[in-house]
Amino acid sequence: MTDRLNLYRFASPATFYPLAGAMIPYFVAVSVVFGIAGLWLGMLVAPTDFQQGEGYRIIFIHVPASWMSMFIYLIMAFWAAIGLAFNTRLSGMMAQALAPTGALMAFLSLWTGALWGKPMWGTWWVWDARLTSELILLFLYIGYMALTAAIDDARRADKAGGLLLLVGVVNIPIIYFSVQWWNTLHQGSSVNLAKSSMATTMLWGMLLMAMCFWMYSIAMALMRVRTIMLERERHTDWVKAELAHIVAGDEK
Amino acid sequence: MIHWASFSDFIAMGGYGFYVWGSFGMTALIMAIEPIVARRNRIATITRLQRQLRAETRNTAE
Questions:
Q1: Which chain A positions have a beta carbon within 8 Å of B4's beta carbon?
Q2: B46 lies in which domain range?
């Protein structure tokens, strides 16, 4: 009776694989729509900042990239915990599919931060709490990818990588609260539920860009997890059937 | 409604053009390259697995 709505069914790679493939175009489309709306609002409509002039517009990618770099890490740690606790196959694949996108988001956060820091603070980089902990996050991503790539057995790679992810998760609250806990050069949070320090168009532009980055990350992770599934499940009948009828070049 | 008076104003970004476009440019570059790399990796993986599968089935047929 409950069969039709059994979500556990999608924990199996054989059923998740086609579902993921069908969803990718929708996430791409939604990401593009949010991106256009966010860029239009942020780059064309939003007013000049009274302190930072037009330079503040870096915020429309700096904040979404920073949020995603932390959020993707939390999702990876979640999958690592599930994988270590229940020994599920899919969780390790999900963590691995997310890692490169997370690393790129952390890199973009640092890159845009440097380009923002130079005109506003007069320096590309300072060893302050916010910047240093974000750099550690980038190293955690790189460390996770290097570690899992170095171990041949996929399940053991998942376990070792999963432990690294769970230990490293302590860094996320450090990044997030660093501007409150320590006296840093980095400005405080721009978004505050009670009273935001930003104009409405700025805030909406930023939130739309965050949605764009979020949907982009999901699309990338789904794209990558499908490849990882084929690789890891290559001895199963469903992958053999799949491989028999896909032509590599014109496959979505 | 549009904030800018002219296109060159938009490009100049009030003197912050280098920093703003340096940020947006790198983001655009990464978001263009990442899917291409993932796709190429996928095609390479599929080709390799198909070759392996063909080799295996040939061996069992003999």
A1: 44
A2: 9-61
